[in-house]
Amino acid sequence: MILKKLSILNYRNIPEASLEFSDKVNCLLGNNGMGKTNILDAIYYLSNCKSSLSSTDANTVRYGEEYMLLQGEYERAGKTENISCAIQKGKKKSVKRNGKEYKRMSGHIGLLPLVLVSPQDWNMIVGGGEERRRLVDRIISQGDSRYLDALIRYNKALEQRNVMLKQGCADPLLFETVDAYLSEAAQEIYACRKEWIVKFTPIFMRYYNFIGNNNETVSLDYRSELNEKPMLQLLHDNFQKDRLLGFTSQGVHRDDIELMLGSELMRKIGSQGQCKTYTIALRFAQFDFLKELCGITPLLLLDDIFDKLDSLRVANIMRIVSDKAFGQIFISDTNRQHLDETIRAVGSSYRIFSVESGVCRSLHQ
What we know:
single chain; alpha/beta; DNA replication and repair protein RecF; six-stranded antiparallel β-sheet; globular; 11 helices; six-stranded mixed β-sheet
């Protein structure tokens, strides 16, 4: 899959941009805060119908403007796909494929698989379980629409049950109905996550040890209350506790994926270099996983990834991305040398863009 053209209007600090990309390597050069990451985020938005930087769509509209518009022209499976995402204050977000608006945006997820490696990945190491659940959910959802549907059903039922608990609902039949619906979705999610861990871990381990040039033992430990009891039993056993708390205290919404180095948590004993290697390896493993699951080569976005890495790890990352298994790559950096080294490593067509105060221009190749 290739992103041929990208048009941006009023997205974050970018007033307007029209970019035509190389089929292989595309470099964004500029100082911090100039807009490089926002361009990558615009590409991310076209794939996921949301920003990687903010949970609120309103924050994507450039300050002082009433709307934003993103348009991308893709070559996918031998066909041209035109995707647009628009937000106008006071109106519903619009996502269109070839001019036809989606009835449900979830129908778009997985069409344009993408992997973003960014400094925010540090939160997977030091953040709470929500960060790691989000990683798992986004990976599986891009390749499995049934999993995404189960997540949507679970979250709706969970919200309804929490409202009932908070309001002191005493109708046992209503709780029985909601609990059955919640439990069915939970078991689907749990089964998919368990299967994902088994398939994903060996890929991740291979990338981690290649980048670090070592044989350290790393693993992903799936921790779920459903390892001990089925969801329906958890809801029954904790019902009185949940009534006092006013929310559902156990379930797959509290799952965690512990990131391990040997028998210890990476966040407790890992060096900066080890942690950075860990997150990059997770993303490269995500790339392989999505490629196999979707049957399409994802876009790879590398946002300022060389910070805190020694020269050996940088060189090994160059070797990875130069492999023919990787398709179109977008990479941002403040250092022209890093970009030139990536271009030489990949040894294919490329384009370089400078980004300054939200203004993008193509540099001479």
